[in-house]
Each structure stands twice: as C-alpha cells, then as structure tokens.
Amino acid sequence: MKELHFNLNTIAFMSMLVLSLTSCSNDDDDEDLGNWIDRSVFDGSARSGISGFTIGNTGYMGTGYDGDDYLNSFWSYEIEGDYWSQKADFPGTARNAAVGFQIDGTGYIGSGYDGLDELADFYAYNPSTNSWTAIAPFPSTARRSAVAFGINGLGYFGTGYDGENDRKDFWKYNPSNDTWSEMVGFGGDKRRAATTFTIGDNVYLGTGVSNGIYLDDFWVFNAVDESWTAKLDLDEEDDYSITRSNAVSFTLNGYGYIACGVSVGTLGSVWQYDPSTDTWDSRTNFEGTSRQDPIAFSNGSRAFIGLGRTSSLYLDDLYEFFPFDEYDDED
C-alpha cells in the first residue's frame, strides 16, 4: 500500500481551496434569498406616481397617473385580509408625484404635479372617519418628486423638483399647531425622485437623480437631535448596483430595503440594508414586471410592492416579499 505524502504548500493550497468554495457557496445562498408571492390585484385603474402611507395593518394609497389622466381616487389595502377598499377621494387637484406620510395614525398627502404646475397644497386623512381636511400649504417653492416621512409626532418634507431646479431644502411640519418651519443641516446633493425608510429613530435617504446623474450619496437623519450624517456611498462596493431613481423603500424586521426604480431602464433589483454594519446585500429580484414609481406598504413585519409602470405599460398587480425565504418560482 502506497503512503501519501503532503508538503506544507500542498496543505495550504487545499485549505485555501476549501475556504474559497465555502465562501462561494455562502454567496450563492445569499443570492437565492428572497421570495415573492402574488397578492390581491388592485381593484382600481392601473397607475404610477402614487402616494401613500401605512397605518397599522392597512396600507393607503391614491392619486397618480394612468397614462391618460391624473387621478384623485384613494384606496386602502388590508394586509391581514388581502383585499382592497375604495375610500373618500383625495380632495385636492388630481396629481401624481406627490408625497405621503403618516403621523400618529393620521395620513398626509401633498405637493406633486397636475400636468401643468407643481403643487404645494397638503391634506390630512383621518382613517376612522374616512375624511380629509386641508392643512397649511407648504410655504416654500411648490414641487414634485420630493420625499417625506413622519416620525416622533412630526412630519418632514424636502428635496424634489420645482419645475426649474432640483431642490435639497428640508422642512418640518408640526400637526399640533399646523405650521411649517425650515430646517438646516442636510449636506447631500439636491435631487428628485429619491426614497427613504425608517428604522427606529433614524430615517435613511438615498437614490434619486439630478442633472441627469443618478446619485450615490446615502444619508441618515436622527430624529432625536434632527441631525444628518453621511453613510457609505451606494457605490462603495464594486458589486453594489443600488443607484437609481423613482424606486420604493420600506422597513422589514429591522432591515431597510430599496427596490425597483429606473436607471438605464426599469429595474426589478432589490437591496437589503443592515444598519448595524452600514452594508447592503442583494435579494431576489422583484418577481413581477420590472417597474418605476410603484407603491410599497409595510407594517414592519410584512411588506408589499405593487402598481407602477414599465414604459407606457401601467400596472395593477401586488406582491408580498419574504426576504429570508429561498426563492420559489412556482409561488
């Protein structure tokens, strides 16, 4: 029987090979994570450029553009029951590219574009009475494709396009006295069609476009001291391809997500953000048609993406996302 002899170089090479194969296997496992299941198709007309918010287990959305008309219809989606209901129409001018956010159980929609002008009016929605109330209009330049979020009893609104210039200013809305006040301190680029997601007391802002350039800076807003801090750029790693505009984002079980949107063409890619390490991982692409300007709902433990458009095709489908499930193309 022959004896086998290995020198130290051979052992080192074999160890490196095992580590490499293990690493590749783990990467492949990560790429297979994320499953999509189709849910109830939207009852209303297909549309994009929608505005909305989530209150408890209900997603609310409305306005938008269907390829022919600007819309003011308004709908709710029941996460637990998987069904849609039409609600009281949005009372302002029909529009798209508006913002939506919620503060302590009240929803807000405002700004946007009506086909002729950028807009500055805002309205509050009371889900218990299914009614709208006009609030103080935004006091600065009317705009569309801005971002907005509600946190710690206040609303925040900024960036966007005013018809001539992209913006980077930020404002705060106080519902207790129905007033707006300008803030200072955002050091990011001016932009339109960016997106935000909230994790705890922090709101993360990224993506968007300005001067024809898709932006890669990424920022976090601390709602306790109202300060902005730059995070690692969205192209920090060579294998990141997160830059885009007209995307959606949401929070799910402590992670942030950016999905869909447009860059060279419409996108279906999905990226997961870990705030503890300031890093991103790719997840299985959105299973429906790639799209821009969709809507996303999340109650923190379940998340959905739907509607939007691909070129001139307007969509009305809805999918639920399971980021840590293995992809199953038969779902």
List the helices and strands and how they pair.
Blueprint: H1 8-31, E1 33-38, E2 51-55, E3 58-62, E4 74-78, E5 83-87, E6 99-103, E7 106-113, E8 118-126, E9 131-135, E10 147-151, E11 154-158, E12 170-174, E13 179-182, E14 195-199, E15 202-206, E16 209-210, E17 213-214, E18 218-222, E19 227-231, E20 248-252, E21 255-259, E22 270-274, E23 279-283, E24 295-298, E25 303-306, E26 309-310, E27 313-314, E28 318-326
Antiparallel strand pairs: 1-28, 2-3, 3-4, 4-5, 6-7, 7-8, 8-9, 10-11, 11-12, 12-13, 14-15, 15-18, 16-17, 18-19, 20-21, 21-22, 22-23, 24-25, 25-28, 26-27
What can you see in these coordinates?
With 331 residues, this protein is mainly β. A 4-stranded antiparallel sheet has the order 1-28-25-24. The protein has one helix at 8-31; strands spanning 33-38, 51-55, 58-62, 74-78, 83-87, 99-103, 106-113, 118-126, 131-135, 147-151, 154-158, 170-174, 179-182, 195-199, 202-206, 209-210, 213-214, 218-222, 227-231, 248-252, 255-259, 270-274, 279-283, 295-298, 303-306, 309-310, 313-314, 318-326. The protein has one domain: Neuraminidase (6 Propeller).
